[in-house]
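USER: Fancy drafting a protein?

ASSISTANT:
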Amino acid sequence: MALGHEKLDVYRLAIGYVAWVFERAEQLSGLHRHARDQWLRASQSIPLNIAEGNAKATEADRRKYFEIARGSALECAAIQDVLVVGRALDNGLSQQRKSDLDRIAAMLTKLGRRGYTVGEPERSLDAVRSPAGDCDSESDCDREGLGSGE
């Protein structure tokens, strides 16, 4: 069983990015520890805010959390720049992952504009029937999605 946010491509992409950050962060210490800590926080903020935003009931609340997640994605890109300048991260590798961050930011922008949420499909009480045998005809069952095909 997947929760609503787990069905979002942007969430899965963000989780993959966090996994990559954890791998890279293990190699950072000394002068880079502050950037490492901020990078870990910012990267985790992306999927956490996606999940929380997706659970919100109002469009304004969802937009707020998606915008926070988008800001965290852009912050991660800036942290990568800092790490490249500090010679702690290869520029080529950073550019590849910035491509993922750009996709995440674009997806979150669209989600925020639409107030979109993934979850269980809404059904009116009129559409709820006990067993499939309660349909007046086979075509009614198929139209309602209650036929033997489901």
The radius of gyration is 21 Å. Helices lie at 9-25, 33-55, 59-85, 91-114, 138-144.
